[in-house]
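Worked example

This section walks through a single chain of length 665. The input is the sequence exactly as stored; nothing has been trimmed or padded.
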Amino acid sequence: MCRSAHNMTPRNLPRNAARVLAEFAVLLLTGWLATMNAATDRTGVLLPDGREFVSWEKPLQFTKTCYVDNRNPKASDLNPGTKELPFLTINKAAQVLEPGERVVIMSGIYRERVSPARGGTGPDKMISYEAAPGATVVVKGSRLVKTGWEPSNGYNLGRFGPAGSTAKIYQRRLDDLDFQGYNPVGMVNVMGDREYLRPKPEELKPHLLRRGMVFVDGQRLEQVELYWQLAQKDGTFWCEHHGLTVHVRPPGDADPAQHEVELVIQEQVFAPRQRELGYIRIKGITFEHAANGFPVPQRGLVSANCGHHWIIEDCVIRHANSVALDIGYQDWNMVPPAIIGHSIVRRTHISDAGVCGLAGMGVQETLVESNLIEQVGWQNVELMWESGGIKLHVTKNCLLRNNIIRHLSYAPGIWLDYQNANTRVTGNLIGDLKETVRGGIYLEASQDRNMLDHNIIWKVSMGKGGAAYNIPPHGGWGIITDGSDEAVIAHNLFGYTQDAGVKTRTVEERIVGARGGTSRWSQVLNNIFFRCGRSIDFSHRENKADGNLYAKGGREVEDEYQAEGRGLNWISGPGPALRLDLSAWQKYFGFDLNGAYAEMNIELDLDALQMTWSVSGKVPEVPTGDHFQRDFLGQGAAKTRPPGPFLQVPGAATTIGIDPRSLAR
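Given that input, the structure is written out below as tokens.
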């Protein structure tokens, strides 16, 4: 049984009761104070409809605390779960915890799947899974295999055969691994719902590779389609058709028996088997190695499995074949649960996910803040619809703020898909997005007002297109609204987007709810555009632009058909596209009457999280507005302020820190 805060009478206290009680009190107080601070601090952030986003959290107090410590020689799942006699596995605690109880986990590597048997019953009766203070807790969906390796045999290398190759390839049978009914080495990446899957033959490869992964000394090996391809490159592996033998060629042609080889065999690492559990908290734990398939459904390495009122904080979630974390109801073919979303994801580092970092459908009243999301999208399947640093559907009354999303490939930074309403994306740093057919922020099929403001979007390059749709090379936008109306895009900084900093696209033939998307009445206000391929590209005239500041010089128009240049804006339709400088933009359409050109120099380091910049020339002053009282750095504004995310616009080169996670907004 777990230790209870109510049953420790003098008669049954252990000999070291004073120490135990003191340690327990510290743990209890630490958790309570952390939650108290999170719960009592109002966000101070207004949603698009003008009301403040307020969290549902309440201070946590726990009636029992269990302990898990797999380094303790006395640890056993037959133990009562006390600190002296802890459980061996986290999943044992997950089966016995009741609402209002928690498990504290000591340092160690835990190779298991944690499947909570139940959730809490309210904000003050949550079930909590947390690392002990100062502990390093790593939960892995992989198995360490040091024995059983032998030289690869039974296959030839074709033209790279014995006479032409010095590759050292090894093989291992997997019969001794307990797959528990899920063998990812024999399963291809594509899931059951293949509606999205319309690639050209040359684009099929990632969909038909196996879900299993191999790591050598912490380095992920690249999977190849055919055996002979192992001869072309080291750091690779290949799976036999039956899924029971893997062939590896480690980096440097090393002998795998002399290195730490981990085979990823679990679909998920932390996920209830029962859907719709609520009020679960995860804190301070590292989760890694999941062999999950491509969405949909969105089945993350860590998964709420259609649950609600989850808190994921101060965690690390990394090395997922597909999705790192999901917090919604996973699949557009599901009947949505009665309660959707209401989750909190904060101060969590998500990295190295093949398709998507954070995914969710129906994420209402959800807060995503102060996270670092990076190295996502390496599977190169953006055309399948479900990619992104963050990919959420049907958000309502949500707040995404102060996140860093960087170094992505073949994936947008934030993708809000389908009937999003009253959601605000503010104060995020998004940059180094390589070959995305979308952009930094992608707002799709949303007819209600949403707000995208005070974001820095830096270096977004265009994707190569493809698929049976014959999508041409496109993308590379800072923000794109696709079949969406009434978006407010304000006080952002756009730099080095290959295409437009802001683009609207009309998709009237797509019926969402009762009508098509008109791309009307969006407002592009008080932004800074620096060396973008285009600055603003409206699909038609029924939108608004004002107060924007455009970089002068640096990319002058070199020929009469060039699509980019000094502050060049487009109106793409109806009829022939209009390509306009600021003067024509103002004169013929009344846009940006308070806008201006300025000389700018901006350098941004996405790893050091610093920006050096200067602006010379007259900078407009624009009305502050109720939603924009604080800037990216958390500074309060007066009645007027300059364009862009910062209140201070330096005339001489000035270096500032731009880590939004440290900002009290």
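What to look for: The longest strand covers residues 596-605.
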